[in-house]
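User: Can you help me understand a structure? I only have the sequence.
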Amino acid sequence: MQVIKKGLIVAVGVALALTLTGAFAQSGDDVSYCNSLAASVRTVTRGNTPSGATGDALAGCNSNPGASIPVLEKVLMDNKVSLPPRPSMAAPPPPFNPKAYRNTAECLTAAYAAKAPLNLCTK
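Assistant: Let's start by predicting it. Here is the structure, written out as tokens:
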């Protein structure tokens, strides 16, 4: 019984640590995206400091980007301005290597799953 409690506590701690790590890692991307949105909004407003929700969103990019991003995106979309690209945390997939497979069937299956051209598997 004691071992189960310890295991459960460790599992909860690990799950919490992984969740917090993901939240902090994403917040850096959110802050940079929010700052690029804020720069576009400042261009649209021609340097004037907006008031209300837009002003709060501009001021909140570094402290609360999750709440600021939707407000700034709406301002830009309402003004028919294209949104800047959102940074992605995912690394690009490795290039498809047809030599890593023992036979043509495995290669074709992997190529199809990777959305790689199937002609890479012909020998």
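Now, to help you interpret it: Residues 2-44 form the longest helix (43 residues). Confidence is low (pLDDT under 50) at residues 10-14, 16-26. Let me know which part you'd like to focus on.
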